[in-house]
Design goal:
Elements (H helix, E strand, L loop, with lengths): L14 H14 L12 H8 L3 H13 L3 E4 L3 E4 L8 E7 L4 H14 L3 E7 L4 H8 L10 E4 L7 H8 L7 E6 L9 E5 L1 H11 L1 H4 L4 E5 L9 H13 L2 E5 L11 E5 L2 H14 L7 E6 L13 E5 L1 H14 L4 E3 L2 E4 L5
Parallel strand pairs: 3-4, 3-5, 5-6, 6-7, 7-13, 8-9, 8-10, 10-11, 11-12
Antiparallel strand pairs: 1-2, 12-14
Helix pairs in contact: 1-3, 4-11, 5-6, 7-9
């Protein structure tokens, strides 16, 4: 019975949830029958080198769902073979962040309880992405593959791997990828148009400054579409502009606007403004990507341009629930505060 329990150390799904998913899948597939005795908690702990409380949590959840029962002095037994067939989703993010958590929470909430999710994080590294996709510990079949495709390099190789997946089960999330074949679902940001439209909305305030700077690090996973949209706006508006790769070594100047994509760059920028005694609006303008509560407070409020991450998760889940394969551009917004 132990061989039905699949634990994947590459997965970010908690081990107790992996145990729960393995057992319910075995029951759903007919491999574990009603009345079957499950491995004891010590057996699982010893075989997989995991903590007792992890297995106890999995078995407690199975009992709460009335899938198994405990018989005093004998062990745990499968109570029913009538386990509702659940969607099994392979979900892979490029990194963990506050914004990715919003997507994840919204996605899971909209799907509801009767869904098994194997969650992976590849940290923008192609080699790790490949290892997670081509993984012998995966269940035989997933109902859906949901992928956020941001890479520091080898993006074309990732596309080749994605094209090996069944396209009718595929959902591309957050970033549009050229060259994906077949009819598949997508919920994505239009990075070029979003920054162009956001800056156009802020044009009356930006025009009070002499120059606009986009801080775009060399080693960022962010798409270069952002640079193209930024430059196109500045050319159309007749505004002096520059793309800066390193804010730490850049010399700040008065009457200029700085747009940050990464949170660490925003921190460096704010530190430098304090050292120079620069004040937002009076001396410089600041625009930051991606909303979070801290930006409401910093410098009496940072102006933000941001996609709606909660809506992104919800829209992705709706496509899976409804069985659609649409390409949906996610909503984008501007939040004006006292930094511009």
């Amino acid at each position: 019975m132990l061989h039905f329990i699949k634990l994947d150390n590459l997965s970010s799904t908690p081990k107790y949830q992996q145990i729960y998913n393995s057992i319910t899948q075995g029951i759903e597939d007919g491999n574990i029958e009603a009345g079957a005795r499950l491995p004891s908690i010590p057996e699982i702990c010893s075989n997989y080198d995991i903590a007792k409380k992890t297995v106890e949590k999995a078995y407690r959840l199975l009992k709460e769902k009335e899938i198994i029962k405990a018989v005093h002095g004998k062990g745990h037994y499968v109570k029913t073979s009538q386990v509702k067939q659940r969607r099994r989703i392979f979900l892979i993010f490029n990194k963990l962040s506050r914004h990715k958590k919003i997507i994840y929470d919204s996605f899971v909430k909209e799907l509801g309880e009767d869904v098994a999710i194997d969650f992976y994080v590849y940290h923008n590294e192609f080699a790790l992405f490949k290892e997670m996709i081509i993984n012998p510990n995966h269940p035989v079949v997933y109902s859906n593959y949901v992928i956020i495709p941001h890479f520091l390099s080898s993006a074309y190789k990732a596309r080749e791997i994605i094209n090996e997946l069944p396209n009718h089960k595929l959902l591309i999330l957050d970033k549009w990828v050229k060259g994906i074949e077949g009819k598949y679902a997508a919920v994505y940001q239009n990075f070029e148009e979003n920054i162009y439209d956001a800056l156009h909305q802020l044009r009356s305030k930006i025009s009070k400054y002499d120059k606009v700077n986009l801080i775009f690090p060399y080693d960022t996973y962010q798409p270069r579409d952002i640079i193209w949209g930024f430059q196109r706006f500045c050319v159309d508006a007749g505004i002096a502009h520059e793309v800066i790769s390193d804010i730490e070594t850049h010399e700040l100047a008065r009457r200029e606007v700085y747009i940050t994509l990464m949170e660490e760059d925003l921190v460096h920028l704010i530190k430098k403004t304090k050292l120079l005694d620069f004040k937002p609006i009076r001396d410089i303008g600041i625009i930051s990507y991606n909303e979070n509560p801290i930006k409401e407070i910093l410098l009496d409020g940072i102006t933000v341009i941001s996609t709606d991450f909660e809506e992104m998760g919800r829209l992705a889940a709706r496509q899976i629930i409804d069985g659609t394969a649409n390409h949906v551009e996610n909503p984008f917004r501007v939040i004006e505060r006292n930094s511009l």
